[in-house]
């Protein structure tokens, strides 16, 4: 099911460089059984943050990448035919509720409308998950936490979270890290030397400045890490940048040429 994975106690927390007090807010939300919404552009560290916090708190983690075909049944579970028998199979949300795990719904607004209906009784103080198909009404085990993310940038009017849903979550806003922090992250993730990382981060800043004019979205930290990784592996700088920081941003040839001019200005 949809990229869900389980992280058990004792697993070392993956590297995460905090931008502020988000780790404290997450821990407080978990301690008080409150759901949490992470808002911010793609590739700025939201998934890494949740993975890090789940390991810190010693909770299993179920991650679901939401898409426009994802329904409540995909999260809750369904009857499947197994060797001539019909058996109930829990979905990732039900497993998380039973085990007291953290369930992370990445890009939750992409999911079908019936998903929000399921989340409502889980996000108020009842903390229950009704499973219509089996007649069960599950009470969330201690430790269960619902975390969802969305990117306010590329919503259209039809795809935004309704106030009645948003107001059930604590919210944290994420953005790309400040240059000095992004340099630390990219160096750590790629192993590339700091001087070369610095130039890539400078370029990323310039590319982000084009958001709203030529580009719909600025380059993500994820893509800067990709570029640095390719360079560290021996790929020529220009080639790596084109593959990781130019081609993923646009299909428009004129805009691409403009971006490559920026690359030359920074590296030339
Ligand atoms: P999102 O979930 O916001 O789309 P990710 O969490 O997948 O983004 O981040 C993409 C990559 O960027 C991560 O795999 C990691 O390499 C890097 N990254 C971004 N922010 C951080 C951070 N604060 N600490 C550590 N790594 C980060």
TrEMBL record:
<keyword id="KW-0547">Nucleotide-binding</keyword>
<feature type="domain" description="ATPase dynein-related AAA">
    <location>
        <begin position="35"/>
        <end position="169"/>
    </location>
</feature>
<feature type="domain" description="CbbQ/NirQ/NorQ C-terminal">
    <location>
        <begin position="182"/>
        <end position="266"/>
    </location>
</feature>
<dbReference type="InterPro" id="IPR013615">
    <property type="entry name" value="CbbQ_C"/>
</dbReference>
<dbReference type="InterPro" id="IPR011704">
    <property type="entry name" value="ATPase_dyneun-rel_AAA"/>
</dbReference>
<dbReference type="Pfam" id="PF08406">
    <property type="entry name" value="CbbQ_C"/>
</dbReference>
<dbReference type="InterPro" id="IPR027417">
    <property type="entry name" value="P-loop_NTPase"/>
</dbReference>
<dbReference type="Pfam" id="PF07728">
    <property type="entry name" value="AAA_5"/>
</dbReference>
<protein>
    <submittedName>
        <fullName>CbbQ/NirQ/NorQ/GpvN family protein</fullName>
    </submittedName>
</protein>
<dbReference type="InterPro" id="IPR050764">
    <property type="entry name" value="CbbQ/NirQ/NorQ/GpvN"/>
</dbReference>
<keyword id="KW-0067">ATP-binding</keyword>
<comment type="similarity">
    <text>Belongs to the CbbQ/NirQ/NorQ/GpvN family.</text>
</comment>
